[in-house]
Amino acid sequence: MKRKLLATALSFSMGATLLSASDVIAVVNGHKITKAEVNTFLRQSMPNQPITYDMLDPKTKKKVLDGLIETEILAEAAQKAGVEKNPEFQQMLDMAKKKLMINAWAKDEFKKIIVSESEAKEFYQKHQDKFTRPAQVHARHILVKSEKKAQEIIDQLKGLKGEALQKRFIELAKKESTGPTGPKGGDLGYFGKDQMVLPFSKAAFALNKGEITTKPVKTQFGWHVIYVEDKKPAQTIPFDAVKDRVIAALKQQRFAEKMKKETELLKKKASITIEGAEKAAEETPSK
């Protein structure tokens, strides 16, 4: 019976040893760098991306591992130089420890905050203005240096409609436009009123779909001929499209409020004494 128990214990021990050995990625002067250590580093470096060591490509693995090896070597050198005995280092270490504890505690507190879908929907319904996509136009333009040249282009386009107008406009944009969108037929894609300079935006939004400006439009960039390819009216973004963002924002808001109240409460309960010059400064009334 004893032999059986001993064999079981040895088997378990060997399994644990093999498991830990497989997790060791490198050994630096006797210090083992494990996957767990690397994963902790990755979580701290990229908190919004749940990436582990095993998910990295070989090139990135090498880069991350080289960084940790260098950190270990430099840390050993600093330790041998007696940095740990430096009072300033101890103060910095103490401050870093406090910040890490606060961050860990705050993270746990944040996890406790629950925002239901119904609460998020209520906020969404009460703040519809925050979830409105403004009106947009899809426009093309031809940019030239002179008003005369712009008017000549408009004259060439007069009388054209529909696909014929669009096709000819694109041809002229590629041939005549001095702007960076010229090779793409002057295509600017969709944009809102506040995304372009005022004279251009005002002229573009005044047009109907399939129309061009009847007069050249002047901006600081030159003279424009504008063609509106499509228009989208202002519309409310559906709740399902913003639900996750609303829940995240409400959680963050409640967390900030909770931490503020908690801090104020703890300050009231704490025994705080201001000493020296700082005490005199606090007692001096402000003018």
Automatic annotation (TrEMBL):
<keyword id="KW-0697">Rotamase</keyword>
<protein>
    <submittedName>
        <fullName>PpiC-type peptidyl-prolyl cis-trans isomerase</fullName>
    </submittedName>
</protein>
<feature type="signal peptide">
    <location>
        <begin position="1"/>
        <end position="21"/>
    </location>
</feature>
<dbReference type="InterPro" id="IPR000297">
    <property type="entry name" value="PPIase_PpiC"/>
</dbReference>
<dbReference type="InterPro" id="IPR050245">
    <property type="entry name" value="PrsA_foldase"/>
</dbReference>
<dbReference type="InterPro" id="IPR023058">
    <property type="entry name" value="PPIase_PpiC_CS"/>
</dbReference>
<dbReference type="GO" id="GO:0003755">
    <property type="term" value="F:peptidyl-prolyl cis-trans isomerase activity"/>
</dbReference>
<dbReference type="InterPro" id="IPR046357">
    <property type="entry name" value="PPIase_dom_sf"/>
</dbReference>
<keyword id="KW-0732">Signal</keyword>
<dbReference type="InterPro" id="IPR027304">
    <property type="entry name" value="Trigger_fact/SurA_dom_sf"/>
</dbReference>
<dbReference type="Pfam" id="PF13145">
    <property type="entry name" value="Rotamase_2"/>
</dbReference>
<feature type="domain" description="PpiC">
    <location>
        <begin position="134"/>
        <end position="230"/>
    </location>
</feature>
<dbReference type="Pfam" id="PF13624">
    <property type="entry name" value="SurA_N_3"/>
</dbReference>
<keyword id="KW-0413">Isomerase</keyword>
